[in-house]
Amino acid sequence: MRFGAGGARTVSSWATALKAEMVRRFLIASAIVVGVATFTQGAAPSDVSNQITLGLTAEVQGDTAADDAASANAAGELQGEGVALTRGRAAVEALEYDWASVLPEWTIEFRDGRDDLFGLTHTQENRIEIFVREEQSDEFLQHVIAHELGHAIDVTLNSTEEREQWQQVRGIAEHDWWPGSGATDFATGAGDFAEAFAVMLTGPDDYRSELGDTPTTEQLELLQELSAG
C-alpha cells in the first residue's frame, strides 16, 4: 500500500485498516490490474535480452492534499535530469505528437539506463518512465517512448468495446488483452495496440508484436480514431 510523501497515515480504526487491505488484495488479484508484467523487447541495438515493461500497478494510492498538488504540478510535463532528460526531450520532439494535449494528466520521466528495462507505464499513477542507455539509438528511444505512450492512450481512452474492435480488425480476438503471469506484452492485445501506435509515430523498423504483421493502412486509421482523445 502506498501512502503520501509525509509518511504512513494514521488509521482511525481496525475496521478501516482491514477494509483497505481487502481492497489491496482484490486489486492485486484482479484480471485487469495484473501487477508488473515484463516482456522482452527483442532486437535492441546490442542486447536482445533487454526489456520494455508495461507496469499495471495494483496499489491503493494516498489521497492527501500534498499528493494531489504534486500530481497537478507535474501533469503534462517531461521530467528527469542530465543526459537522459536532454535526449528524452529531443526524442519526444522528433515524434511530433502532442501527447500532453491527449494525456494532460500524465507525466513522462527520463532516467539513466537500466540493464533490465527500457520503459514502464504506471497506470495507477498516470506516469511513464523511460530508461535511456548511452548505446541506445535515437530512433529506438523514440520507438520505446511511442510504445509506452500507446499503453497510456489505451488505458486512458479505450473502452472494452473499442479494445474488442481493435482485436477484430487485427484478427487477434482469441488473445487476452492484458498480460498474465509470465506472458510477454507482445503476445497480448495491449502490446499489439502499443506496438501499432509506435508504428504510427515512428514507422515499422522496430515493430515487435507477436500477434500479427505490421498494421495495415486501414488498421492504422482505426488506431488513429481510437487514440484521438
Description:
It is a single chain. The chain is α/β, with parallel strands linked by helices and 229 residues long. The chain has one domain (14-226). It contains eight helices and six strands; from the N terminus they run αββαβααβββαααα. The protein has helices at 14-29, 65-74, 82-95, 99-102, 138-157, 160-170, 189-202, 217-226, and strands at residues 35-40, 51-56, 78-80, 107-112, 119-122, 127-132. It starts with 13 loop residues before the first helix and ends with a helix.
Short description:
The protein has helices spanning 14-29, 65-74, 82-95, 99-102, 138-157, 160-170, 189-202, 217-226; strands spanning 35-40, 51-56, 78-80, 107-112, 119-122, 127-132.
Secondary structure elements and pairings:
Layout: H1 14-29, E1 35-40, E2 51-56, H2 65-74, E3 78-80, H3 82-95, H4 99-102, E4 107-112, E5 119-122, E6 127-132, H5 138-157, H6 160-170, H7 189-202, H8 217-226
Parallel strand pairs: 3-4, 4-6
Antiparallel strand pairs: 1-2, 5-6
Count of alpha/pi helices:
8
Q: Determine the structural class based on helices, strands and strand pairing.
A: alpha/beta
| Percent of residues in helices | 40-55%
Distance between the termini: 31 Å
For the record, the count of structural domains works out to 1
Shape annotation: globular
N-to-C series of helices and strands: HEEHEHHEEEHHHH
Low-confidence stretches: 1-52, 55-72
Strand count: 6
